[in-house]
Amino acid sequence: MGEKTDVWQGTLALMVLRTLESMGPQHGYGLARRIEQTSGDLLQLNYGTLYPALLKLEQEGFIRSNWGVSDNNRRAKYYELTKAGQRQVKKATAILARFLTPAQEA
Amino acid sequence: MRKLRALWMRLCGLIAAGQANGDIDAELASHIDMHTEDGIRAGLSPEEARRQALIRLGGMEQTRQAYRERRGLPWLESLLRDLGYGLRRLGKHRGATAMAILSIGLGIGANATIFSMVSRFVLRPAPMGDPTTLLAIQTTHQGDRCCNEFPYPVYADLRDQAQSFSGVAAYNELIPASIGGSGEPERVWGQAVTSNFFSVAQLPMVLGRGFVEGEENAPEIVLGAALWRRRFNADPAIAGKTITLSGHAYTVIGVVSPAFHGAEQVLYTQFWVPLGNAPTLAPNLPKESDRGQHWLQVLARLKPGVTREQAAAELKTLASRFAQSNPATDKGNGFFFEQAGSLPPSVSGDTMLFLAALSAVALLVLAIAGANVANILFAQAAARQRDMAVRLALGATRARLQRQMLTESLLLGLGGGVLGVLLSLWATSALSGIRLPVPVPLDVSIGVGWRVLLYSFALSLVSGVLLGLAPAWAAARPLLANALKGEDALARPGRRFALRNLLVVAQIAMSVVLLCITGLFLRSLQSASTIDIGFRTDNMLMMSVDPSVHGYSPARTANFMIRLQERAAALPGVVSAVATDVAPLSGYGRSDGFRIPGSPDAPSSWVNTTLFMVTPGYFDTLGIPRIAGSDFGSETADGPRVGIVNQAFVEQVLGGRNPIGVQVSGAGVLYQIVGVVGNVKARTLGENTHPVLYRSLKQTVSSDPSSMGYTLLVRTGGSPASIEPAVRRQIYALDRSMAIYNEQTMDEHIRAAYFLPHLAASLFGAFGFIGLVLAAVGLFGVMSYSVSRRTREIGIRMALGAKPGTVERLVLRQGMILTLIAVALGWPAAWMLSKMASSFLYGIQPHDALTFAVVPLFLAAIALVACWIPARRAASVDPMQALRAE
Fold first, then answer.
1. What is A2-105's CATH number, 3.40.50.720, 3.40.50.300, 1.20.1250.20, 1.10.10.10?
2. pTM value surpassing 0.80
3. What ipTM does the predicted assembly reach?
4. Closest-CA residue in chain B for A61?
């Protein structure tokens, strides 16, 4: 069970980083909706699990957060990538690409 | 790095918990609001939209919980909570906590004390540079494992030919001398070393330097730090100054580090002089050219990269080469080495055995203490099962509860460890104060060092964990339904407190073993105190001098002792005074093989005989019965040698024939026997009575001087201590610079000889007493608990007509059955183990009938008392009260 959770959390973290990279600063709800859309039915995201994952990324220094105001004038906490976070996305994407490419060819 | 950073942030999160809680609440609230808005926009009613949003989030409280766990360090938080809770609980049950900590403390204290001996005598490397490559080499003969010293030529050959070593040094381990400086002259002990000794041993110096090549015969001296402080007030400019040693001038060239007092860690030597110069201080040392006299210790430093196996192989080759070139002296000889600073091989066997026995017994004490505490904890766990059941019912995991129980028992273990270390600090300082009955200076002080602390810490942890197992098991066990109803949830049908009974049986069985061993040592002490030593010890003063270290020739020494004896005998209050070389029961003595001339010269016809030099009146002064013949007194210094023998000599050497006038020979000297006296214990209390030959001091000093000095024995009319100043004045009247040592009464001297039986009896006595008390308390606890659990059953029995006497017997029987099982298990174990102790027992067999008969009875009596109190309580149960309580 632990292993499965780890994989899940690692995947979630990577999706958060990639989403933030492509879309810029986002609040938690926005991130959750976006990840749900991109992963389709593959990931049945319980929105709540996103927040510990965000906290972990913040503790590790890959993202930072600030309170801001949303499109419809609501106070929300916005997350954005740090420099370290940008490096981490590139690294992770490269590794992922290397592993996935042969599989796609086959 | 990232992990570390995250850990740090989480630690911070732990502290700033309150503020962040508000943060996540606001964030989640904003999340739900946005989601609800989206839902309303999609056409849902506001209530339904909010409900959907909450469902998709996965619950507000759950999310908050997951977030909290990620923010702080949940395990650390729960550990801190466990610790806090544990401490509060232990504080609330003060009696039980104190009992538990005291039990474990006694157990760990016993172990730490014994381990401090192991650490001191077995584990501690010598305080010399890189001890692992420094070897102490000895010679062996005819394949014996051990060991003899080196003759100088063998050392020189080894030094010049061995390729495995970067340096080989030799030294004579004990040279007496008298030293000047501040205060009265003092007799001190030192070593004579080759000039490379300090570089081979790589000794750190406080100041100055050690000897270097070319100083083989120099009148130079290196001082020990303690001597330098005591006699020279730690003079920082002492290097280069001249001091007087036994009347000779020596230049101080250095002071060695305080930790070093000889390569053998038990000897306490305080100065070092070059080996070539040693004959100045000790004229009767063997000659450096003599290949037959073994008198040197050898230290060798392995070359870098050379293994001990390679060194051993080379030594073997060298031994056979030496045997070929010097067949007369070296044939059959070999070499043996071990790391320098190990216990001397001659004593290491017995010491190891003694320490192993003590360690085993100390562990036994700890195990008994542990069983006791486990019982207390188990009883507490049983009392807490309702609490546990409630927490389980509310969703606590069993692992969580077990962790908490373990935290509590670890706290107890560590508390016991702290107490144990404190106890062992006290015990080691008390043990260090014991004086060993040997004439040479020893350092056998023990202390609590880092090894002992580490060992105690490990023991505390292990006992903490082991102790927690039973309660942890119990915590996870309760049958919820029973526990919540307030019934006993640990009791399964058909089993009644099986684990507790098991613990108490184990505890009593171990006590049987412990008490049997204790009993043996107490009996041994008792039998040692009834040993007939063969002479009177009351009203006798002894005092030693060593004129040879003051430059006296043997003839002058004899003259000095005889004049001193005459002067002392003439003092008022003195009944008689005699001089001898060694007082009996000093732990050592001169000996030679003796036989009747003319008997066949087979090795078996030489009987090992202890030799004493005495002056006339010796036997009457010591109260040794004179059985036949005459005393000394009529012989002349250079006349034919005469001797007086004891009865054992008559039986073993002369085969019981009339000894008067018979000539015997030992070490090439003929003695005519002029008298027979009673047997005495010559060297140690434990020895079998063996042959002794007394020689005339007047005739012997010149040809065979004592290297250990001479002792004046004074029999007094009144208290011996009051005569002491007068005797001292007589010595100083003859020579103002004479150093006096070993001043004591004969009773004090004999007490020192009882050292081993006393030490063993007091150590084992203490352990046995602790074990007995713990076992009795344990049995009492189990029986009390059992009675309190069965109150209702007993009430019903009594309501149905059982008499108080019947109930009392019921409880007593239960306790006594446990005791009987335990004795049946422990007794044979003790029987087998007692063999281990046999070499330390005086005058009794390891299977001493009295001990093995009395211990079980004694223990049964104690057990009876421990059960009787709960039994009385059971008998006084009021049936009405007991039944109403439900």
1. 1.10.10.10
2. no
3. 0.84
4. B2
